[in-house]
Amino acid sequence: MAHNMRFNFDKSAFGRHESFGLRYGWLTKGFNAFQEDPSVFENEDATVILGVGKNMVKSIKNWLFSANLISREVNGICATDIGKLLFGKKGYDHYLENEGTIWLLHWLLATNAESSTVFYWFFNLFHRTEFKNDDILKSLEQFVESDLKANYSHNTLKQDIQILLRMYSHTRESGNNEHLKELDCPLSSLQLIAYYKDAKSYQSKIEKRDHIPLGIFGYALLDVFSAMNFKEIPLEKLIYNQDGYATIGSIFRLSENGFIYHVEKLMAAMPNVFEYSESSGLRQLYLLDEKISKYDLLKWHFDQ
């Protein structure tokens, strides 16, 4: 079962990472061990099997849930379809060697409101493009208190923010000379958040981002069409967060021009799948091929 891309204010999760951000190799290692033995994370030998400490075992399990590679079903915890396609025995990219896999993992994290709430909140609901640590923490605390009506400690929320920023940000030194830190997390390579060391501030800019792989952009589009169960969606709903659904433009930090650029490229590469129309001030995207699935787009991406 896919995760629900619409925010459920009654279901949220914070502080389950054991203070460890996602690291290279963890998803592959954790998913393979889970497929061998679904009870591996409760196993007394889990630290030996996974080669990490006890808290890291819990963290790996958390990241598998957060990235929607495993999920809780009626009959227990199961591997998801996307988990099997990426990291199964015949998976597309066991070792995260394809940039598209990193973009896809970002999409999976930022759309999974129930299991990775802080990622969903930041990429869908926090709209400031420049901020400091205190700004983002205060905003998250206000959201939790007023919208979720939940009670999470200041330290828990602070740690979640620190983990998110550490996982995504790369450092820019003064003089605008870019210096990429050696980070364990693959998501920093997407450059969705920049840290300006001298100003001690962050930027998450809205840009054209024409390097986002087309197949992954198409996967995200079909994910939204499926979640909304529509055959036509106004462009604004795909670019800006509305109705509580995860939003492509917000998650990929895409400008309107960038979004339309990707749509047009996708229409040229896959005729008769999508159609874009603009008339009387109404901009709509249509799904013409009802048989195509997001997994077809994934196969198309990895087969290229």
TrEMBL record:
User: What range(s) does the DUF4007 domain occupy?
Assistant: 14-298
Top-rank taxon of the source lineage equals Bacteria
User: Pfam families from the xrefs?
Assistant: DUF4007
InterPro entries xrefs:
DUF4007
Query: What name does UniProt use for this protein?
Result: DUF4007 domain-containing protein
